[in-house]
Amino acid sequence: MLESTLTALELLFTVRGLLFLGLGTVIGLVFGVIPGLGGTTAIALLIPLTFSMQPYEAITLMGGIMGSVSFGGSITAILLNTPGIAPAAATCFDGYPLAQQGKAGLAIGAAGAASSVGGLIGVVILVAVIPLAKQIVLLFGPPEFFMLAIMGLSAIALSTGGRFLRGLISGLLGLLLSFVGYDAVSGGIRFTAGSEYLWDGISLVPALTGLFAISEMINLSVKGGTVVTSGQANVRITRVTDGVRAVFTHFGVTLRGSAIGAFIGAVPGVGGTVAAFLSYASTLHADRDPASFGKGNIKGVIAPEAANNSKDGGALIPTLAFGIPGSAEMAIFMGVLVQHGIEPGPMLLIEHQGIAFSLILALSLSCVLATAVGLAVTRQLALITLVDVHILVPSVVAISLVGVYALHSDIGDVILAFVFGGLGYFMIRFGYPRITMVIALVLGELAERSFHQSMMMSDGALSVFATRGISLALFILTAFILVTPAIRLLFARLRARGAVGRKRPIAAAPARGRRLARLVVPALVLAVAVVMLAWSYQYDGRTRMVPALTAWALAVLALFDIAAATGTRAGDYIAAFFTGSLGGPEGDEGKPQPMRRVLAACAWVTGYLGAVLLAGFHVATPVYVALYVIKHGKISVRKGVIAAVATAGFIALTFEWGMKFQLYRGVLFGG
């Protein structure tokens, strides 16, 4: 091993080696920052460029990309609530509130340091575990995958704070959406309404882009002002070192997130999104003040960012040792290895140890280099939060939708992102947590497939989950995660009842108009549950079983939500049970905004989508940006033209010239 390490160091620390490492790091940061792209797209696009490279040069380039893309994705997640890559969605929940408080530098500093430390810990785990990798990977079968997915879904109960009922409803909606498309068990197609686009299911990147980027831009458009909500006088963009220091102050959080990321990364097919959300949920659960999460708790940035980078080290374990890709990114990376005559598997560590350790070193150094580059420009990046939102909104919407289209060159992805953008805004407006829907979207298909495979293994006996050691351990851990908050709630209620002279707080009844508005969403949810339930019974028993059970559960919870919104005595009891509070039903998110502003904001996004479908991105983008800034934002014509030219120029330079993408040209110009 020492000889292989020295050989790898000798290859890396050459002019060409350092050049390719730096190039890969910069490319990874750029692809991470742009919503909808990410490391998978970067590696796929650069494969042709590696044909003429030496193996170690190609490996170094790819290692630089994989090590830096996670931090790139967190930058826009923090500044604009727009995750550049899917795993960075977990960083939005506390990173963006910190940016709104004028602490963007603090959040980015913490994200960068956590990414570096997490990446290094992931590499250390990779080096330590490779000799034992075969035994570890082979321990996981369908029952273990199912229980792992259920453990991830249990994070729903931990990530909703005082909105437990709404969180469960969001999660069940996400589960139903995850069942759309091809059913891997029966081989049939479900819930597509005749659309061929939906045969492959709900694509995660467009859905996340809509839920976070588009919905947040609609929200900012409605509110106006700047991203920072605490006032420019209180903005501090010089707290980068405080963020770095926080990673080591809360080093236990960093270690836990890194361990979760490496463990989840080593399980083939699960991916970094699950790792980030599990790390976030476990940190929330273990914290003494879980209510502070989602409001700007720095631990909510450190935990997912540590997991984001450490998962690469874990994903390389099955990739290098057995030729089993741990993620989509690793599947494409395997193509790079094969292209250069290197067959992933047990013989790789015997015949090409120098190559393997070159990758490990490149991954390690790129984590540190990406953080250094990112933190060097943090103060400049943080100024984005002071820009008028009416300049940011059209640019971010346009770049996000272009990035979504560039992912598969499919206009259906753009429409899907738009639909989820509207859904995400109303989830923000009525206080339905988006995190639970994301977790369910990620884990739903894995849970259903693994459950059916487990039933086939055991001839339908549920005991299969209790007779296998790892499966049983995951079940006990899941039960512990779910029961602990309930125990805390029980003790809190007992203390409140025992307080002398303590009176039960009476919640003020909401105005009749607001109460009626509060009933609209659960009524719509109930309608969706009924439709999906009826729809599921069109399929055979195995195909409909899990969707039908999910729809039944959603219908029951929607009825509970309707009861809680009525303000009746029974509704108050239901609300108290789910919120853990005797103070009445769950409140809406923020104060209501005038309907005129909401409709105007939605109309602008809808108009842009219509213009894209009709005339393509080239025509629609500059016109949309200029008109939005000038007409809706009431900003000067000069700034509107500058914003339009800058946005169109960035898209042309980055996507068309740099990445050779052919953008959609609209029905008027041949599509």
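Above is the first protein from milestone M3; the second protein from the same milestone is given next.
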Amino acid sequence: MSKVATRAFQILLDVAALAFAFALAFALRFDWNVPAAFMGRLVLLMPYVVAIKYAVLHWFDIPRFSWRYIGLREVVRILQALAVSSLILLALRLISVRVTHVVPFARHVWIPLGIIVADFVFAFCAIVGLRALRRVIGERAHNRSASQGADRVPTLMIGAGDTGLQVVKQLESRRDLGLLAVGFLDDDRLKIGTMVHGVPVLGSTKDLARVVRERGARQVLITISRANGKIVRHVMSLCEEANVPVKIIPTMRELVGGQVSLSTMRPVAIEDLLRRDPVRLDETAIRADVARRVVLVTGAGGSIGSELCRQICGFEPKRIVLVERAENALFEIHRELKASFPDLDIVPIIGDVVDQERMRRVFETHRPSFVLHAAAHKHVPMMEWNPGEALKNNVFGTKCIAELADAFDVRTFVLISTDKAVNPTSVMGASKRVAELYVQALSAVSATRFVAVRFGNVLGSTGSVIPIFREQIAKGGPVTVTHPEMRRYFMTIPEASQLVLQAATMGRGGEIFILDMGEPVRIADLAEDLIRLSGLRPGDDIEIKFSGVRPGEKLFEELSVAEENADKTLHPKIFVGRLPTTPLDKLRAQILGFTAVVDELSVDVVRERLCGVVPELTQPSAPPPPAEVDTEKARSVRPSSFDPFRPSSDRVPADGQGLVGALTVSAQVAARTASEMRLAMAGTRSESDGACRTSKSVSASPRAA
């Protein structure tokens, strides 16, 4: 049937439905025995009543709505249109009573009130009923066609909330997906025993194994869009015990407009196991600093730099200047941003942050008011092998950009720092600590707000362990871990970038902001999780080998030192610490001394020079050989909830039994072990490190002043 014929047929059906409703209202009003006088009135008024009602429906755009996809919104709209038309009939009834003595014919317009009310009900049922019937017929035909030859997988869903409801609706309308919802599990006791869009809530998550057996479920789908890592781990462990695969709906950030699409359903990833509660930002404060201003990002092609650029573009800056020395990385982020933000002024600049003349020209031309300095060498072993390059890029590069920010009256300068700057044992960590000291010292004499933001590892960044582990697993193993007790803090790249921008709005100048990284993760557990997520068994299918700690590495990283007196901020995931600043002239003289060793290949020579500025720089203590570590005992230790303001002695590991590859150590254990390591450092330093003083006492997480 052609489009014109279909539309004409639909109009005819609507007109017939309205006429039938009006006639039925008359019949009901007179108990199915309409008097002859009123029968004539029915015939006389029907064309006019139907015309009025259809005109109102057309005014409300009802004929333009697709019958095939009628929903609650369309039903409400029809209700409104018919209510208006009934009010018009009621008004005509009242007017006819008043003008009958002047216009005798007006008595024929008078309609009993009962007929008007009944006509409204019948017309609503008829108009909605026609469309609902069309939808039912269409969906049955579609499902019949889609289900022919399709093997629908019985699926048990975890989470009977809004996301679960949307998933069930999609499964009902798209049988071609091959999924059959057999039930929900939800830990909310009030939901157990209820029905969600026709699908029963069969119990809580502890009933998973039983429900899988009883309902014949062949897979589990986590339909909690805001599920944190603890929930995902718990469900994954239950599914492993029940021997069923598990998939997940992505986070709300990954879903456009918060609408769930089953095309985004995917297997559980390592990011899900480490997922934390979503970051809540004060977007008004960030927008006040960024909107309609020129923003400059160094290291714009790197993992953190590129994500910072994406986040900033969402706050509508006047212009964003991308500074990057790697041509290919700059090309990729520039192309991506131009595609996502076509109306934004995006300027790609190839340049090295140590090239003072090039950077000066960039600042002169674009006059940025907000600078994010993310350019840095960050790989610890690589900087131990090339120590002079750490000084060039991390120290002199930061000095160059910071001084230009001061000279050109930049409003805010943010240094992206690292947890490796705390009581550093590596050249890389010490070089970042010097960078922190320099921006603090410059802040004391500058009108520019200089702040540093310190955090740990980010998931999926270039050179991080997760891409390396995935590559090793794809090759059949072995997966190499440096040491069984190696632990690191982890955060996703988007979360870190969002918190950096938030911290930047809080700074008054001279602060070191410390991000809440959660609990430290044992790298060996991370490797086991990735092997399991690949459908393999650690030790049986893929071997884990311990290769030994590399130059400059610690077993544990720290986020703060005791002297920083880290305090809470208004944001629950951001802390702030302040140290007494070194006089700028003295620090500049010390940094000037680095020029003599920037081309030095000897790490001992560079370390000795760094000790003059960072006296807490130490050699990493020699950890016990991997074979001597009781990994089973270590695996039994589980983390406590993050509370940086509770004394260490009060932090008790939480019970984590039943969690697959759960985080294996609390902040208490990490702090205590790190302190023991540092007590042994004095006897393990090399002669070249003799100029360094004994390291200061530290805490594994920020504490209250």
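Note on the second protein: The chain has 22 helices and 24 strands.
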